[in-house]
Amino acid sequence: MDTETHQGISPAMISAYNKPFPGTYAATDVLFLLKKVVMDPTDISVKEASVQSGRRHYSEMISVERLPDDGYMRLFEEAMAAGAGRMGNEVVSLARAISAAVEGPITLASLVRAGVPLGVLLKRALTALGRDVAHFGVSIIRDKGLDRNAMRYILERRPIEGLVFVDGWTGKGAICNELEQSFEAYSNDKPRLVVLADPAGRSWLAASGEDWLIPSGILGSTVSGLISRSILNADVVGPEDFHACVQWAHLEPHDISKRFVDTIWRYCQAAIEIGAVEPFYPAASVWTDADRSFHSTNAKQAVEFVRARNDVTNMNRIKPGIAEATRAILRRVPEMVFVSSENEKDLSALMHLIREKNIPYAVAREGIHPYRALTLIRQVI
């Protein structure tokens, strides 16, 4: 194991690999452009107070990821069974659209972590369609931008004309803003962002604008190669390093990353074989300006509904969309959750967490439309 010592941190606290690695996926599926580190975790409440006070950026800290209980995992399995067919069909729809739009070699840069399961499946589908395609997992951090060293690594090996960014969904569009600003350093063109669900209307290509239960959206590292969200802390990340991550070894017995993509891939193969997605599912489309305006207006109204109702001044406290709302409960300190219904099947896992953790919630179907769930982070300072 390569180790290095950084000022202010002992060798015992850090063990680093600053080279591409596949996590718990096959190396043919993805290579993460991240630096694996070991660092002391920060308690969630301490992290929240540090972030909200402005003393530290959220990317400087990491909290231990814990496995959801058996009841939640049963709901996840139900969600995977229910959503696997749709996800598989939509992956192929997206792959066909990418293949038609991009000439020459295609490079998928999945935004870790949420983009990675989709990126793995897109890589397989594009390969099956006969395209030259590579897939990397890269870090992007709010207020900090894309990992410049990861981008340099990619662009030294692959043409920028074929670069496509991948994420699972859009929330408010904050990461879309970050991506667009960061990409200005590399191109005069806007970045091509592909997502499954784009209720915020911010992507280049989306399977739909619907906020639906994407199965991989409601788990963390155990469905994303066992890696943490990305870290940018000067104690463990040097000027020439990739952004960092922790690989959660304690969750290894529960890792389903490969099983998840293999399950969805069977539906992808069926869709490829019949030559088209099932008519029930909307075909992927490049959003027009009118599409973006429609979705963006509705999304902003939903966020404004929550902001005004709760007198929110820090918009980072608002996490819209089923996946984003769920992840906020799992790794943040929630104040309240808004849902479109307490009885919808797609919200079963979210409602399980709400009841388990005794989090206040309100049914506000019209107020939060087009989202079906939204979590408000508690103000702790």
Description:
With 381 residues, the chain is of the alpha/beta class. The protein has ten helices and 15 strands. The protein has helices spanning 44-53, 70-101, 116-128, 148-155, 174-183, 257-274, 289-310, 322-331, 348-357, 365-368; strands spanning 31-32, 35-36, 106-111, 133-138, 140-141, 145-146, 163-166, 193-197, 205-208, 244-245, 285-286, 318-320, 334-339, 361-363, 373-377. The chain has a seven-stranded mixed β-sheet with strand order 1-4-3-7-8-9-11, with helices on both faces. A four-stranded mixed β-sheet has the order 12-15-13-14, sandwiched between helices. It has a two-stranded parallel ribbon with strand order 2-10. Helix 2 packs across helix 9 (348-357). The longest helix is centred in the N-terminal third of the chain and has 32 residues, at 70-101. Mean pLDDT is 91; it is low at 1-16 and 277-282.
Short recap of the structure:
The protein has 381 residues and is of the alpha/beta class. The chain is built from 10 helices and 15 strands.
